[in-house]
TrEMBL record, chain B:
Keywords assigned by UniProt, alphabetized: Ribonucleoprotein, Ribosomal protein
One annotated GO molecular function: structural constituent of ribosome
Signal peptide as annotated in the record: none
GO biological process, one term: mitochondrial translation
Any one GO CC term of the record: mitochondrial small ribosomal subunit
Name of the protein: Ribosomal protein S16, mitochondrial
Membership in a protein family: Belongs to the bacterial ribosomal protein bS16 family.
Matching InterPro entries: Ribosomal_bS16 (IPR000307), Ribosomal_bS16_dom_sf (IPR023803)
Record field: transmembrane: none
Highest taxon listed in the record's lineage: Eukaryota
Amino acid sequence: MAPRIQSRRVSNALLPYLTSSQASSTSSISSTCPSSQLFSRQFSATAAPQTKLRRQMFQWLSTEGAALKHHIPGETNYLSGRADRDGDSNEAPRPFPGNRTFISEAVLSEDLRNEVYVRVVEKKKSLRAVSVELGIDMKRIAAVVRLVEMERRQRAQGKPLALPYARAVHEMIPTTPLAQDGERQTFHEPINDLPAHPSTGAQIFYPVPESRSFTRVDAGRVFSGAPALEKAVADKISHPSDLVDDIIQNPNSIEWVGKGENARQVLQPADVRIPHPQLVKLELDRKAFPNERRAVTQRHAERVEKQEAAEQERRERAHARREKSIQHVEPEGSRFDYRIQDAKFTKETTGADGRAPWAPGRRYGVPAEDRKRGMVKIPTRVEA
Amino acid sequence: MVLRIRLARFGNKHTPFYNIVVAQARSARGAKPLEVIGTYNPIPKKPTNLYDDNAHTRPYKEIALDRARAKYWLGVGAQPSDPVWKLMGMAGLVEPKPTTFHKA
């Protein structure tokens, strides 16, 4: 039953005239209005108990909206995208029907995120492998591991956790469940997506003779302003994904173009830049050898292993190099440690006038622009 | 005139940051020095990426120093100021000065 607005005594002496004049002006509309209430209230000085919209709201709440009053645990309670009411479960869950672009994306369920942690930390699998198995982006995998680690530490320290809140939220939003034994894992998100590279935004008119093959490799070179590959080199590349192995093994082999501040690496084809280039190879192999599934899988595993070994070695080398240039000093009785980093203050690092923007240290004769309009001062990224 | 290796303060209020500079002893702190040979950030930083609670978690301060240039300027008679002497002592470029006080 719709609650009513309490009618208040009208003390304003002018109001009867105002309301009557209003009523006379709307009388032409009232004939079309189905409700007789408006018509009967023509000369009434009492405040209307309900507006039309309010009446409609309560009507909706007692009919359509009644189904939404109590949410079913484990299911979203959105106006659209509910499987049981409309029968079309394919529709994306949209909490706000007026805002078509807002789609409530699924989050990882508790089981799934715990599984991610178990596979990475306890089973010592690589982020890359876990990402492919569970269909979760590698960055998300890394974030989950950090957060679960933090949660465990807080549990160990006996800190309170907002568990009822987490439970309530997880009941109300879509989640990606962990597959039971024998089931196929539903993928949480596309894992091989690539953001558009800024240098591909340019519209370039580049005439190519019909007799010449022009692939994604060549397009990347055009976008970065590099000269075309020599024919002998270009002929060796039958598919852009052929470059993957070399570049993974040795990322420094990517060519540079331009001088000084304008120096940039040649834009590689998307086949190389995607997070999991090996999956492209796997699909190509599957198509080429449809009857040798085991051999194909074996080869894929070998490739992934090789890639991981190369990445690990590179990480270790970089870490060793960094550590070598830093001297750790731990003075006796001090509250702080000191890290003394080797720096080079030469013409190359500071520029001819000592004011190069990449020079180490603060610079002289260059205005600090940190108070300028539009300068972003908050950190926009976190170094892991 | 005496050459000094000293700190030149940069940064805003409450966020000091120093260049380690070689300058004429009587020039202003903010004047352009002969040479910048390093930086010193006196605001302690917390080590990140510590998954293990037992890890050594003393906050640290960052120094960057061009050792070759520092050695050269020391060799030609530049005199480090006291704070720079302390930093260079830690880097092993000069003999640390004896403390004038005793820690309890």
